[in-house]
Specification:
Length: about 290
């Protein structure tokens, strides 16, 4: 079956209060684009065109207004409500009907990935029948699910927000899993903090040898925009990249056009929608190329 995508863009964003008291975190700007454009672009780079977007009931109208039904980018969107945030693994329960037994790639709505060769890494994960997750070295692993390695360097456990981290490698917010993920998630019991932990779901796959762990090395950037500081860092990172290279990152129109999901006339129409902005100028350059 064709792999489907999930973007988890729910939650209250309380760590960013008061910024997120009137708007969803995933709709905040990261330099020149809404935050959700970046995780959406990751799924698009993987070749995924059927995507469920999980939001709070209150925020869903804003997401629909921003993203439409996806057809403008050659995609198909389904919108799913998350009444209460009850852990990352809850996303698989909410998306059970949407997935209908298909394998999935889920990305967290506040995660940004960048790196030369990212498309090839995603293609490899798409092709594996087993699951794939990605580890990334961080300076503050206690904030994340952390990989524990055996003496031979193989991942053997995932520990959620440990006080004494077994390594500096965090599990990023990008998960490729098989069609059994919703059923497995249904068997998880809530943790002490009352959540269905993604670490528990992934640990089951890992124990069975059904999970590949890819380490993203120095050539990659993974940004988690969950705090005010990391939000600012992400915006500065994107600004520096784009101004230095004259290229866009996290641009759904460009990905769709280069993948031939939309044609030149459709790109021109999208360009017109953005007025005289710098974003529109980039799309005009695509048309000239």
């Amino acid at each position: 079956m064709t792999r489907k995508g999930i973007i988890l863009a729910g939650g209250t964003g309380s760590r960013l209060y008061p910024i997120t008291m009137g708007a969803s975190k995933q709709l905040l700007p990261i330099y020149d684009k809404p935050m959700i454009y970046y995780p959406l672009s990751v799924l698009m780079l993987a070749g995924i065109r059927e995507i469920a977007i999980i939001t709070t009931p209150e925020d869903q109208p804003q997401f629909r207004r921003l993203l439409g039904d996806g057809s403008q980018w050659g995609l198909s969107f389904a919108f799913i409500e998350q009444p209460r945030p009850e852990g990352l693994a809850q996303a698989y329960l909410l998306a059970r009907d949407f997935l209908a037994g298909a394998p999935s790639a889920m990305v967290l709505g506040d995660n940004i990935f960048f790196g030369h060769g990212l498309t090839e890494v995603l293609a490899a994960a798409m092709a594996r029948p087993e699951g794939t997750i990605f580890g990334y070295r961080v300076s503050d692993p206690e904030r994340y699910g952390v990989l524990e390695f055996d003496p031979d360097g193989r991942a053997r456990a995932i520990v959620e927000k440990p006080a004494a981290p077994p390594s500096r490698y965090a599990v990023t917010g990008l998960y490729f899993l098989d069609g059994a993920a919703p059923e497995r998630a249904a068997e998880i019991r809530p943790s002490a903090r009352g959540e269905l932990e993604i670490a528990d779901l992934l640990s089951g796959y890992l124990a069975e040898g059904a999970l590949t762990v890819e380490i993203m090395g120095r050539g990659y950037a993974w940004l988690d925009t969950g705090t005010q500081g990391s939000l600012l860092d992400a915006g500065n990172f994107v600004r520096t990249l784009q101004q230095r290279q004259g290229l866009q990152t996290g641009c759904p129109e460009e990905i769709a056009y280069r993948a031939s999901w939309i044609d030149r006339n459709q790109l021109f129409a999208l360009c017109e929608c953005h007025g005289q902005s710098a974003y529109a100028q980039h799309l005009q350059e695509l048309l000239r190329d």
